[in-house]
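Q: What would this chain look like folded?
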Amino acid sequence: MPANRNALIRYKTIDNCLQNRYRQWTLDDLIDACSDALCEYEGIDKGISRRTIQADIQVMRSEKLGYNAPIVVYDNKYYKYDDPDYSITNTPLTEQDLNVLSEAVEVMKQFKGFSHFHSMTDIVSRLEDHITSVRQKTIPVIDFEKNESLKGLEHLDAIYQAIINRQTLSLQYRSFKACSDKTFIYYPYLLKEYRNRWFVFGVTKEDKMLTNFALDRIQHLETAHNEPFLENTFFDVATFFDDLVGVSKTLSSQPEVIRFRASREEAPYILTKPIHKSQHVVKESEEGDVVFEIEVIINIELQRIFLGSANEIQILSPQHLVDLMKEKLEKAAENYKTPVSVRDR
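A: My prediction, written as structure tokens:
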């Protein structure tokens, strides 16, 4: 493994440069690119020596990290990959790597059955499947839900470290509705993944209000070293999502009992995959319809679940949710009353 994160950033930057064969790369060009990357990602602006980049190239060429990068010099000046398809990110796992991963999987499998291990089950299955496919040179037989173009993951570790180390963040954010960025002094307390998006929950210094930010809308963040951390006295992170579907919640939000009817066709899906852990059956009709109840906060994520099955689910109470869903469905129906031409699209 690289000695530190800065070295890894340099290796990755050099790799990105040498994959670009539409440009010639001198040693000075690589130095400048690495300096820019370290300044962007780590805030380091003191520059990098020629000796450091030369040493990095030698490490990448060697077997030390398993890269064996085919870096060559031509015209006594320019650097490139001799293999145009090479990248350090495509380096295959060695047998030693596979053995280590196999041992790790076996250790983790020993924890099956413990309540705290449930969230890791899919990770272990994914690792086990990948190891098998690499060794047998077969395609994976498990396809996990993933989003290859997901943005914001580069902030995940920094926010996680800020939470566990109780560090204040300076966070530059742009919501989907905003025309420009806004900077917040922010005290992060909790990370949450929902449908392949990551969110951080915390409090802003400006108004001491609970605010969640989507990581894919964060433009920039850094540790605010001069800002003392504000301890979390606002909510219990262990129970915060107990009455929630999704991520939209304020400290003043209160759960409500929601009753809805599912058709005979839809009911089996809701029975086998409950909308919320509070879900229970109130009544079953002879025709096969089922009336359910859940006790949750009414938010946009819950509304979208109901709207997604609007032809199979009818909200029965509370009345304000019935009225809201009716209004949304009427607006949706309006979208289809006027024929849409190809030109309009």
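The first helix runs from residue 5 to 19.
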